[in-house]
Write a structure and sequence with these properties.
Elements (H helix, E strand, L loop, with lengths): L1 H19 L4 H12 L4 H26 L3 H11 L4 H28 L1
Helix pairs in contact: 1-2, 1-3, 2-3, 2-5, 3-5, 4-5
Amino acid sequence: MKIIVSILLTALLGFALSIFFPWWIIALAAFVVAFAIPQTPWKALLTGFLGIFLLWSLLAWWISTANDDLLANKISMLLLKQQSAGMLILVSGLIGGLVGAAAALTGSLARKL
C-alpha cells in the first residue's frame, strides 16, 4: 500500500510543483516523498521512477495529442531519426523517471542517516 501511495504522491507533488518551478523540481518532489514515507531503498527507487515516469509520459501524451502529434513527430525526427511520437513520449518518460529514481533513492538513504 505504501508503494501505491508513494507513486501517487510523487506524481501529484511533481505535477503541482512543476506548475510554478522549472522541470528539475520533480527531483525535489521525489526526494521529499521518499524521505517522508519510510521504505527500503529499492522500493523508494521504484516508486520515484514510476511516479515521475507516469507523470511525464501522461503530460507528454496530453500535450502531443492536443496538436495531433505534429510537434512530437518533428522533434522525434530530429532526436530519434524516425517519425514516432510514441517513442518520443517514452524517451521523455524514461528521462524523467531516471531523475525521479535517483532523487527518491537519495531521499530514502538520507532518511537512514
